[in-house]
Write a structure and sequence with these properties.
The protein is an alpha/beta fold and 269 residues long. It has two domains: 2-100 and 238-268, Rossmann fold (3-Layer(aba) Sandwich), CATH 3.40.50; 103-233, NAD(P)-binding Rossmann-like Domain (Rossmann fold, 3-Layer(aba) Sandwich). The protein is built from ten helices and twelve strands. It has helices at 16-27, 43-52, 65-71, 79-82, 102-112, 129-140, 153-160, 218-225, 235-250, 258-268; strands spanning 2-8, 31-37, 55-60, 74-75, 87-90, 96-99, 121-125, 145-149, 166-168, 180-183, 206-209, 231-232. The longest helix has 16 residues, at 235-250. The structure holds 2'-monophosphoadenosine-5'-diphosphate (ATR). The site of 2'-monophosphoadenosine-5'-diphosphate (ATR) has 17 residues, from helix 6. NADP(+) binds at residues 126-130, 150-155, 210, 234.
């Protein structure tokens, strides 16, 4: 069977092994996909060690996506512009290829929910690795604008300067109502809440949290309390980014995601 895995810390609750085993089943492949816990400073040696022992591909999650960007020998597609890599592919003649499937995953997830992006106003919360990773794909959908808000404004400025539809949002008062608000901060992972500007939300505002949970996420609760409309958690994005990674490792079509997404949602319950 083909050895795959996901590097991260923490990693024990990762759903990726489950998702990829369902893709393997669907496509008739034998896959051994492991959770790979890495110490904060051990990322590059862990990656080298695992690939030398026959890993054919891997995912990378928090907090190593930017480190992964730095260790690959070649960037695929939008990964070169994002500074963050979530997918590693063993290169045919040695070295590693880095891709970022988070952005395509997010766009596919939004489309599956009937949310279009072309001509829309998007408010992206956060300017860390998660935001950097999805920015190229969001920008490619030709939204009217992507406002980037970040607790630390200088990081928002850096990120926004790289993409033509992006603008930094320094003050809530200078924004118009967005059609879509995407949470790419890690606030909830630290149990911290994110103050949402109530005057920017109404029942037509759509929310998307990159974090998922069995119950409502902190962002989903806050979004609702602040007057927003429907707000999705990140489970669909997780499945969609995984499907793109799978297609890269095996040079195959993207696996079907709809049924697998619903199955995982039920398994979470
Ligand atoms: P990294 O910062 O390592 O790239 P990330 O999870 O992609 O990892 O980024 C964390 C994001 O969540 C950042 O935008 C961070 O804001 P800062 O740049 O100001 O640190 C944001 N974040 C984390 N905790 C937050 C909180 N309590 N409120 C608002 N934003 C928060």
């Amino acid at each position: 069977s083909d050895k795959l895995g996901v590097f991260g810390n923490p990693i024990k609750h990762s759903l990726s092994p489950r998702i990829h085993s369902l893709f393997a089943e669907q496509t008739g492949r034998h896959v051994d996909y492991q959770r790979l816990l890495v110490s904060p400073y051990g990322f590059s040696s862990a990656v080298a060690g695992q690939f030398s022992q026959g890993l054919v591909g891997a995912n990378v999650t928090v907090p190593f996506k930017q480190a992964a960007y730095r260790i690959v020998t070649q960037h695929l597609g939008s990964a070169a512009h994002s500074g963050a890599v979530n997918t590693l592919i063993s290169a045919p003649h040695g070295g590693l290829i880095g891709a970022n499937t988070d952005g395509d995953g997010l766009v596919a997830a939004l489309k599956s929910k009937g949310v279009s992006l072309a001509g829309r106003r998007i408010l992206l919360l956060g300017a860390g690795g998660a935001s950097r990773g999805v920015m190229p794909a969001l920008n490619a959908e030709k939204p009217d604008v992507i406002w980037v808000w970040n607790r630390t404004p200088s990081r928002a400025e850096q990120l926004a300067s790289l993409f033509d539809s992006a603008q930094v949002l320094r003050h809530w008062s200078s924004a118009r109502k967005p059609d879509l608000i995407i949470n790419a901060t890690s606030a909830s992972l630290f149990g911290e809440s994110l103050a949402l500007p109530e005057h920017l939300l109404d029942a037509d505002t759509v929310g998307y949290d990159m974090v998922y949970s069995r119950d409502a996420t902190a962002f989903q609760s806050q979004f609702k309390a602040s007057g927003g409309g429907v707000c999705f958690d990140g489970l669909r994005m997780l499945v969609e980014q995984a499907a793109v990674s799978f297609s890269l490792w095996f040079s195959c079509d993207k696996p079907e995601t709809e049924a697998i997404y619903h199955q995982l949602r039920n398994e979470l319950a």
